[in-house]
Amino acid sequence: MADCLDGNVLAAKSFARFGVTHMFGVVGIPVTGLANRAVQLGIRFIAFHNEQSAGYAASAYGYLTGRPGLLLTVSGPGCVHGLAGLSNAMINTWPMVMISGSSDQKDSGRGDFQELDQIEAVKPFSKFSVKAKDIKEIPDCVARVLDHAVSGRPGGCYLDLPTDVLHQTITESEAEKLLTEVEKGRVFEATKAPPSSEIEKAVSVLRKAERPLIVFGKGAAYARAEGELKKLVERTGIPFLPTPMGKGLVNDDHELAASAARSLAIGKCDVALVVGARLNWLLHFGESPKWDKDVKFILVDVSEEEIKLRKPHLGLVGDAKNVLEMINKEIKDDPFCLGKSHPWVEAISKKVKDNVSKMEAQLAKDVWPFNFLTPMRIIRDAILGVGSPAPVVVSEGANTMDVGRSVLVQTEPRTRLDAGTWGTMGVGLGYCIAAAVANPERLVVAVEGDSGFGFSAMEVETLVRYKLPVVVIVFNNGGVYGGDRRSPEEVSGPFKDDPAPTSFVPGAAYHTLIEAFGGKGYLVGTPDELKSALSESFSARKPAVINVIIDPFAGAESGRMQHKN
User: Fold this and answer.
1) Strand intervals (E) in 390-456
2) Where is the Thiamine pyrophosphate enzyme central domain (predicted)?
3) Residue 425 has what DSSP assignment?
4) In terms of pTM, does the model score above 0.90?
5) Residue 293 pLDDT more than 80?
């Protein structure tokens, strides 16, 4: 009989043939064989403790590389845990594919092991989902989920592989024929480009503006638009404002950076060119009172639906890099530049200087027991000291993420990962692992609140197992927002002696967690201890946890979102 291969081998071959190099996940029935075959075929499999973290890793990998991040899970509960990563990819519009094993098709509806209608379960969180009902469908299904994930507006897709299909067999030659046919038939859709008349209109609106502003987000980062953005900013002299994950596309320290004058910039601009950022809660929906009621938005987005939803003055549908290239060409033929003495540029520049010097005065003080600012300044300086390639900073928490956003400096694109559009807590370690795998030349530094860290802390073992150059810094203030913030009258009822809902064990020894697995832990409480731990761990480039003891009364409840809590 001719050599035969099963569904596990065919699925692994399909992924390898269609360009997949990494996979994240948690193995078990029925997908362990698939993971092992994938490794044999040159795919690096990063095994996690929890599908949530593995899913967050897959979503961030999609963002950092522009290729779908893959999550492999078992059936039923494994698929449900994986929905955390899939939904995160959907909301942030990052390409990702979740692959789950599922129960035997002939036992459907009879209460089989880990049975769930997974195609139905993933519906709200995926742009495309498909079940391979027979081994011969596997190559086509694999190609379709990979292609859908990156086409148009990127997002999460789902592939269902039933147990019986993974156990079916076909001959090597049949498999090869199927793979070749599918490979030949793959068609990649060209990205839309706006007509030149629309580009002319956009440039004309920018040219006539008295107080123009360029806003860019992680969509521009995903599109690798940094070169065109920098050209546009420097050619026109227009101030710019990045969203948190857009930071670093143009250096945060650039003289036209308006981040430190954000309220003035968005409150007074008359024209805003918004590139790869949505007018959602992060940008106050583009509405007054934060924005001027007469502001004209020029939106550049890969999604036509997004532009229809926001009803801007002008919408340009297309890839951010391509559209900016067209805008730059149009300006080059008839250049204009605001110049440093332009009243708008001067106003922004003055406000930036005032706010930065106020902030620097606060940062200059060495306060301990630590507040948030002193350790954040020391971390900022240590990260800047690494030079290029700059470390990837992963940031999650309430106060820790807020303070980090205004203090930490991004000098290179795609070097900041945080809770993102959805404000997702628990992404920290998954994002660290994705960044280390996607950018092996970069150090990864996580700046985590103790609550944020707790969601995925067990994955420090994964860091040690794969010897990843990740340093996790935990701001330990004894709980969510910092210990017990209740007023005396709130402490009543039969369980009043319980710790507050926001409290953790005080003085938790987080640094010993990684030591349990052979990593390096540091406990720090003074500026000198922190400097020494950072210097040592950054040069070692090995897995480490630095437990930074913060005054529990530093920081605010809900970070800067008190109005929502």
Assistant:
1) 392-396, 416-417, 444-449
2) 199-326
3) T
4) yes
5) yes
